[in-house]
């Protein structure tokens, strides 16, 4: 039993990780092309962060929280900021691809590294499926606007068309007219009715989602230089449009719409956690580019922090502009930026925003399609996945097979399935990665063997022994003053298991707070990683028991694969490799 535990927690030191990378590069010719500079990394970060969140999910978040949602953007940015500092230290100490997976391998050990790697694969894949489908929706709307619309059965996924047709048919049977049904239901009904069929199977597929995924995968496949130029161009266009929205929208702000600032209280603001956090998940993708940076130890930390600051400022300003232009109740739409300008009769600006959304989402897809193959590659290098995933194309110098697999993993579901209902999995997966990265810094500080000569970025040390308890006490006071109703509901025991199960994530969080506070007091833990761990874990509790259940099911599937393949084929499982590491 002890031998099994030792194997599950076997770690690769920063020195061993760098040595493995250099060996792979120099002996087998697998070095990637180092071409990214600071401005390129910041551009990648902005490309990933400013996308579906700013053009879509910000609307529902504002409708739930009112103007106060701007505070949620700040709170989420602070939580991401703590994580960014921890990411920056790891990226500076271990400048190889793999993101949180590699960092977990160096701090927690192999089992946790596998879990976080498997988690990242889910996060990137589901996030990209959702973005591809959302991109298709915007693209289809713009095409209809210029009179070039495709048939409905070529712009909708199979499940949405099937379910919409069933619902619409039931309503029509009750005497309702098709024209009186919601627009999305009409589209689903027509798509299913008009679609050709083979052997009784309707041929309904989201072709634009497939097209953009194939195009982006091709760009990522042929090389980092092409991806870099495309990302930089898309980011420039996107920032120009956002500045246009802010500048023009400021003249139409009615400050009366900012009162009340938080109409639904703290609970209303926190309802937008998933939507708001979905807007921030991109900054960790910067760390996957470590092996293609000219100076990763210097540039990666700066890029993460700069991208986060720039995007937070833009998010807060845009949230205030949107809630100032129209009453917050009207913002529960899929295209809030275009909607507010249509609402004030500026249809030309609304059209520009709609087109820019296509650009914005394409840039997000580019960055994540670029990042995910490098996670596959890193896990393959360590033997946890088949060796073919770490194969580098001899001409393009990209992880070719992993890139193609990533394209299929995103394109096929986006073509046929409606997975927007599980986009919360992207947020919970990213938050889990952030929690482990912050925890990894705490572990690394307690472990021996951290290179003493490391001149890269380090998280500023602030002793949390007394500061953390004071911050927690202040938080409890604020909760009591501003959210007494929420506290009362939490301590109510009526409702049975159906009610109690939804409290489990928060109960778990409270237990972690107690344990971590005691450890911080007794071991003088660093405050910033502790705050990063706690804030991200709290945000996870806001995503609901359903998402936790789906997340745990995904991790369980990953553990089966690890014990049947990764555990036995790990390079650290071989005696010679174990001695070298």
TrEMBL record:
<dbReference type="InterPro" id="IPR002293">
    <property type="entry name" value="AA/rel_permease1"/>
</dbReference>
<feature type="transmembrane region" description="Helical">
    <location>
        <begin position="41"/>
        <end position="59"/>
    </location>
</feature>
<feature type="transmembrane region" description="Helical">
    <location>
        <begin position="199"/>
        <end position="221"/>
    </location>
</feature>
<dbReference type="GO" id="GO:0016020">
    <property type="term" value="C:membrane"/>
</dbReference>
<feature type="transmembrane region" description="Helical">
    <location>
        <begin position="465"/>
        <end position="482"/>
    </location>
</feature>
<feature type="transmembrane region" description="Helical">
    <location>
        <begin position="265"/>
        <end position="283"/>
    </location>
</feature>
<feature type="transmembrane region" description="Helical">
    <location>
        <begin position="233"/>
        <end position="253"/>
    </location>
</feature>
<feature type="transmembrane region" description="Helical">
    <location>
        <begin position="304"/>
        <end position="328"/>
    </location>
</feature>
<feature type="domain" description="Cationic amino acid transporter C-terminal">
    <location>
        <begin position="527"/>
        <end position="570"/>
    </location>
</feature>
<feature type="transmembrane region" description="Helical">
    <location>
        <begin position="348"/>
        <end position="371"/>
    </location>
</feature>
<keyword id="KW-0812">Transmembrane</keyword>
<dbReference type="Pfam" id="PF13520">
    <property type="entry name" value="AA_permease_2"/>
</dbReference>
<keyword id="KW-0813">Transport</keyword>
<feature type="transmembrane region" description="Helical">
    <location>
        <begin position="551"/>
        <end position="567"/>
    </location>
</feature>
<feature type="transmembrane region" description="Helical">
    <location>
        <begin position="425"/>
        <end position="444"/>
    </location>
</feature>
<dbReference type="Pfam" id="PF13906">
    <property type="entry name" value="AA_permease_C"/>
</dbReference>
<keyword id="KW-0472">Membrane</keyword>
<feature type="transmembrane region" description="Helical">
    <location>
        <begin position="102"/>
        <end position="122"/>
    </location>
</feature>
<feature type="transmembrane region" description="Helical">
    <location>
        <begin position="401"/>
        <end position="419"/>
    </location>
</feature>
<feature type="transmembrane region" description="Helical">
    <location>
        <begin position="502"/>
        <end position="521"/>
    </location>
</feature>
<feature type="transmembrane region" description="Helical">
    <location>
        <begin position="528"/>
        <end position="545"/>
    </location>
</feature>
<protein>
    <submittedName>
        <fullName>Amino acid permease</fullName>
    </submittedName>
</protein>
<dbReference type="InterPro" id="IPR029485">
    <property type="entry name" value="CAT_C"/>
</dbReference>
<feature type="transmembrane region" description="Helical">
    <location>
        <begin position="71"/>
        <end position="90"/>
    </location>
</feature>
<keyword id="KW-1133">Transmembrane helix</keyword>
<dbReference type="GO" id="GO:0015171">
    <property type="term" value="F:amino acid transmembrane transporter activity"/>
</dbReference>
């Amino acid at each position: 039993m002890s031998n099994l535990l030792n194997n599950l927690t076997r770690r690769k030191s920063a020195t061993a990780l760098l040595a493995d990378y250099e060996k792979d590069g120099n002996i087998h010719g697998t070095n990637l092309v180092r071409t990214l500079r600071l401005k390129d990394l910041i551009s990648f970060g902005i490309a990933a962060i400013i996308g579906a969140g700013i053009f879509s999910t910000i609307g529902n978040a504002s409708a739930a929280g009112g103007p106060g949602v701007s505070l949620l953007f700040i709170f989420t940015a602070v939580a991401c900021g703590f994580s960014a500092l921890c990411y920056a230290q790891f990226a500076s100490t271990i400048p190889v691809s793999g993101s949180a997976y590699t960092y977990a391998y160096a701090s927690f050990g192999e089992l946790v590294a596998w879990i976080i790697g498997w988690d990242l694969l889910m996060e990137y894949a589901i996030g990209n499926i959702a973005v591809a489908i959302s991109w298709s929706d915007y693209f289809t709307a713009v095409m209809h606007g210029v009179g070039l619309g495709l048939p409905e059965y070529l712009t909708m996924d199979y499940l949405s068309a099937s379910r919409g047709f069933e619902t619409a048919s039931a309503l029509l049977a009750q005497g309702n007219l098709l024209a009186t049904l919601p627009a999305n239901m009409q589209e689903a009904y027509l798509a299913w009715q008009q679609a050709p069929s083979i052997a009784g199977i309707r041929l309904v597929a989201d072709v634009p989602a497939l097209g953009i995924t194939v195009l982006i995968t091709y760009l990522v496949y042929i090389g980092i230089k092409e991806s870099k130029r495309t990302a930089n161009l898309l980011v420039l266009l996107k920032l120009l449009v956002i500045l246009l929205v802010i500048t023009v929208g400021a003249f139409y702000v009615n400050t009366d719409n900012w009162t009340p600032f938080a109409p639904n209280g703290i609970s209303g603001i926190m309802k937008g956690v998933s939507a708001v956090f979905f807007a921030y998940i991109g900054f960790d993708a910067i760390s996957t580019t470590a092996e293609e940076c000219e100076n990763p130890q210097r540039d990666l930390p700066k890029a993460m922090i700069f991208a986060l600051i720039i995007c937070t400022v833009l998010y807060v300003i845009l949230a205030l502009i949107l809630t100032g232009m129209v009453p917050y109740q009207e913002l529960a739409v899929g295209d809030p930026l275009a909607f507010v300008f249509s609402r004030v009769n500026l249809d030309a600006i609304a059209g520009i925003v709609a087109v820019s959304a296509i650009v914005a989402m394409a840039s997000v897809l580019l960055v994540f399609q670029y990042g995910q193959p490098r996670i596959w590659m890193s896990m393959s290098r360590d033997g946890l996945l088949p060796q073919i995933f770490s194969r580098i194309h001899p001409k393009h110098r990209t992880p070719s097979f992993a890139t193609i697999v990533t394209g299929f993993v995103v394109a096929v579901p986006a073509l046929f399935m409606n997975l927007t209902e599980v986009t919360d999995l992207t947020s919970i997966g990213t938050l889990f990665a952030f929690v482990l990265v912050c925890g990894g810094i705490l572990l690394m500080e307690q472990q021996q063997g951290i290179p003493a000569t490391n001149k890269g970025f380090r998280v500023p040390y602030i002793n949390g022994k007394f500061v953390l308890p004071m911050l927690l006490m202040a938080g409890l006071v604020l909760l009591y003053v501003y959210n007494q109703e929420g506290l009362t509901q939490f301590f109510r025991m009526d409702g049975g298991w159906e009610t109690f199960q939804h409290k489990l994530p928060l109960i778990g969080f409270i237990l972690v707070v107690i344990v971590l506070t005691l450890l911080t007091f007794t071991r003088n833990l660093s405050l910033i990683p502790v705050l990063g761990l706690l804030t991200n874990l709290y945000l996870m509790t806001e995503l609901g028991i359903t998402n936790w259940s789906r997340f745990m099911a995904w991790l369980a599937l990953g553990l089966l694969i690890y014990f049947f393949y990764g555990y036995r084929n790990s390079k650290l499982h071989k005696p010679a490799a174990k001695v070298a590491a």
